[in-house]
Write a structure and sequence with these properties.
Layout lengths: L1 H16 L3 H46 L1 H23 L18 H7 L4 H14 L6 H29 L1 H5 L2 H23 L1
Helix pairs in contact: 1-6, 2-3, 2-4, 2-5, 2-6, 2-8, 3-8
């Protein structure tokens, strides 16, 4: 099982730390609301993604192979949600004070958890991990346990890192409402780009 963990780790790190919907929204949340108010968002991802991974590992991924239309509906729902989040981030009203009510509110733990079920990158990552790192005739439960443990560890690392990255910009953004506006619009545009890339 250590061999499996060592093989999976580079894949998990690359998938979890690269820009994607979760990471971009966390960076925006950290910048606008700070780390403390973004903790529920982090917890939602840290619980929601492993739960998604577990359910796919137990066979849900095969359902989408049989019913491609269901996968298309999921991708459309995810793209719609991401477009709404991009709009919400881009139109936040910076007033020079990061984390004020005028900038909206961060995602709740439940919203972030539920988002994992329509997050295209999360599905691609989860299906890729299960398909690549489990073996036919192997100990499915043990392999799935290792995959869950590695992915949970990496997910905690990536969510905290991206939130701290956003929060680290607080001082610079705090000094300039225009800088916060540019940051928010940039994060929104990157979210839209992630939609375009996933929908192709």
């Amino acid at each position: 099982m250590l061999t499996l963990a060592a093989a999976l780790l580079p894949f998990a790190v690359a998938a979890a730390f690269t820009p994607g919907p979760n990471n971009l929204m966390l960076a925006a949340s950290g910048a606008n609301f700070g780390v403390r108010r973004s903790v529920p968002h982090i917890l939602g991802i840290v619980t929601g993604f492993p739960l998604l991974l577990l359910v796919i590992g137990l066979g849900l991924g095969a359902l989408f192979e049989q019913y491609p239309a269901a996968h298309a509906v999921l991708k459309l729902a995810g793209a719609t949600f991401l477009a709404l989040m991009a709009w919400r981030i881009a139109t936040a009203r910076p007033d020079g004070r990061v984390g004020t009510p005028s900038a909206g509110r961060p995602l709740t733990a439940l919203e972030a958890l539920l988002f994992q079920w329509i997050n295209p990158k999360a599905w691609i990552f989860a299906i890729g991990a299960i398909a690549t790192y489990t073996t036919v005739g192997g100990s499915r439960s043990r392999e799935l346990g290792v995959i869950l443990a590695v992915c949970l560890l990496v997910t905690v690392g990536s969510t905290v890192t991206w939130t701290l990255f956003g929060a680290g910009l607080n001082r610079w953004l705090l000094a300039s409402p225009r800088a916060l506006r540019v940051f928010n619009v940039s994060m929104a545009l990157l979210l839209v780009l992630s939609i375009v890339l996933v929908m192709q």
